[in-house]
Specification:
Layout (H helix, E strand, L loop, with lengths): L14 E3 L3 E6 L2 E6 L4 E5 L2 E7 L7 E9 L2 E6 L4 H11 L3 E5 L5 E6 L4 H9 L4 E7 L5
Antiparallel strand pairs: 1-2, 2-3, 4-5, 5-6, 6-7, 7-10, 8-9
């Protein structure tokens, strides 16, 4: 798959997806996701996968992917004021923020206890579309 942002495919845009792993640059980060390091499940037509955050034990970053023919749309939970207001409205006390010494939000821990809450996060604008992967033929 390739992440074709500006109409031209470059080496750093290539992401290799196999049955057991995802390798490449994703969301401005170099990633190497394998079945050993990620949790995967299907939910309402989306592939939901979470990866551990290296610096924080018991913390995960959650992504969603939805396939449409030869492309895959990628979504994540990216904290900004608008998204956090949606999360707070849906989850209430199930959100915990970690702030830095300067008062800025460093991390948000969400614990949707029910599938209905997770579905509401998806349907009511709680996700950020990070990009689209487009299938390319490799030589």
């Amino acid at each position: 798959m390739g992440a074709d942002v500006d109409g031209e495919m470059e080496e750093q845009d290539l992401i290799t997806i196999t049955e057991n792993s995802i390798l490449g640059n994703l969301f401005d980060e170099k990633v190497e996701l394998t079945l050993e390091t990620m949790h995967v499940r299907w939910f309402r037509g989306h592939l939901v996968f979470s990866t551990p955050v290296e610096e924080k034990p018991n913390a995960y970053r959650v992504f969603l992917a939805q396939r449409h023919q030869n492309q895959i749309d990628l979504f994540s939970f990216t904290a900004d004021d608008e998204k956090m207001a949606i999360w707070q409205e849906i989850l209430g006390a199930e959100i915990q923020e970690t702030t830095g010494v300067d008062g800025s939000v460093k991390a948000v821990h969400m614990s949707p206890a029910k599938n209905a809450e997770f579905r509401a996060l998806m349907q009511r604008g709680g996700l950020t579309q990070e990009g689209t992967l487009i299938r390319v033929e490799t030589p």
